[in-house]
Amino acid sequence: MVNSRVETPAVAVMGGGGGTAGRSCAGCGGRIADRFLLFSMERYWHTRCLKCSCCHAQLGEYSTTCYSKGGMILCKNDYIRLFGHSGACSACGQSIPASEMVMRAQGNVYHLKCFTCATCRNRLVPGDRFHYINGTIFCEHDRPGGGLLSNHPTPLQANGMMPDQKVC
After folding, report:
1. Of 162, 50, 37, 41, nearest in space to 106 by CA
2. Whole-angstrom Cα distance, residue 34 to residue 166?
3. Which of 34, 98, 103, 163 could form a disulfide with 4 if both were Cys (CB 3.0 to 4.6 A apart)?
4. In terms of DSSP bridges, do strands 43-45 and 36-40 run parallel, antiparallel, or are they unpaired?
5. Which pLDDT band, with edges at 50, 70 and 90, does 50 fall under?
């Protein structure tokens, strides 16, 4: 079982004993002959092979919870760091399914369709430059005080506006 929420354990530690004959590890492909093995995501793992894709922590020793999204196996800290704490879109407030791709800005998480300029409502995509000002997203052309009438945008002022960011 894989979690999309924090509350439910996702790693079961099982005694190896005689019941593991013929089981192979989903991580390394080797036969599991260890005293203990892990069962997670409907597959069996050596305790040393079930690791976080980001920090490489051994999840069987580190926690009884792991998360899977976008083909990655993650510890709780990396899941929250990458996909946000609440699982809710910062724009619409609706939940974001664990299988859905997201956009992030300043620690907030958004549905792809909700990551839009507050002025023109155009959707921003990876590679677009944007400004994040007091919790609001603006495309490069609609930045308040941007003054794009000349070909040179005015520099950001020290009035709480964040520097230019690139969507990653």
Report:
1. 162
2. 47
3. 98
4. antiparallel
5. very high
d(CA 120, CA 140): 11
Handedness of CA 86, 88, 89, 90 (dihedral sign): negative
| Residue ranges with strand state E in 49-162 | 67-69, 72-74, 102-105, 108-111, 129-133, 136-139
- Residue 102 is predicted with a pLDDT of 87
Helix (H) or strand (E) holding 144: none
Q: Nearest to residue 52, comparing CAs of 77, 20, 17?
A: 77
pLDDT digits (tens, 9 = 90+) for 127-163: 899 998 888 999 989 988 765 433 333 333 333 334 4
Number of other CB atoms surrounding residue 88 within 10 Å:
16
Residue among 6, 97, 15, 32 at smallest CA distance from 50 = 32
Task: Flag whether pLDDT at 125 surpasses 70.
Answer: yes
The answer for residues whose C-beta is within 8 angstroms of residue 18's C-beta and 6 or more apart is none
Using alpha carbons, list the distances in angstroms from residue 122 to 79, 108, 112.
28, 19, 12
